[in-house]
Specification:
With about 140 residues, the chain is an all-alpha fold. It has one domain. The chain has 5 helices and no strands. α4 runs antiparallel to α5. It is elongated and about 50 Å long.
């Protein structure tokens, strides 16, 4: 029956969806390993933009100047972008030593940049969860 519908040129939604899922499933592992480095760059960019906006806010407050109209909404939008970038990064599993090392370096730098022991512990906890996933490659040990 399925062969008849394909031969007549009419594809069912089920056939098209099945073919799509096969193609997507065959690409997932390649996409996941290739996606870590761009996701790290995106998260770093989002972090930098949010931190820069915070420094601007501090400078304006120190100068006694009022915040521009819409500043709160702008900061909230930067926080949302940063959160989405981090969640996208956390969803990926490192499958190469290079991506694992880059992910560990990102989390270490982020924990150090925050300057608190709680942030460093949270970064280590996040890394333990990511590297505990099936198929995750651990970063090379420092020698």
């Amino acid at each position: 029956m399925a062969m008849l519908s394909v031969a007549s040129g009419h594809l069912s939604r089920r056939t098209v969806l099945g073919a799509f899922l096969v193609v997507v499933a065959s690409r997932i592992s390649a996409t996941a390993s290739d996606g870590i480095l761009p996701a790290i760059r995106w998260a770093e960019t989002a972090d930098a933009a949010y931190l820069a906006s915070g420094r601007i806010a501090v400078d304006l407050a120190a100068a006694g100047r009022p915040m521009p109209a819409g500043w709160t909404a702008y900061r909230a939008s930067l926080a949302r972008v940063r959160r989405v970038a981090r969640l996208d990064l956390y969803a990926l599993t490192p499958t190469t030593p290079e991506s694992a090392e880059a992910l560990a370096a990102y989390h270490t730098a982020r924990g150090e940049r925050a300057g608190s022991s709680g942030a460093r512990r949270a970064a280590r906890r996040r890394l333990r969860k990511v590297f505990a996933r099936p198929g995750a490659v651990l970063p090379p040990r420092p020698t």
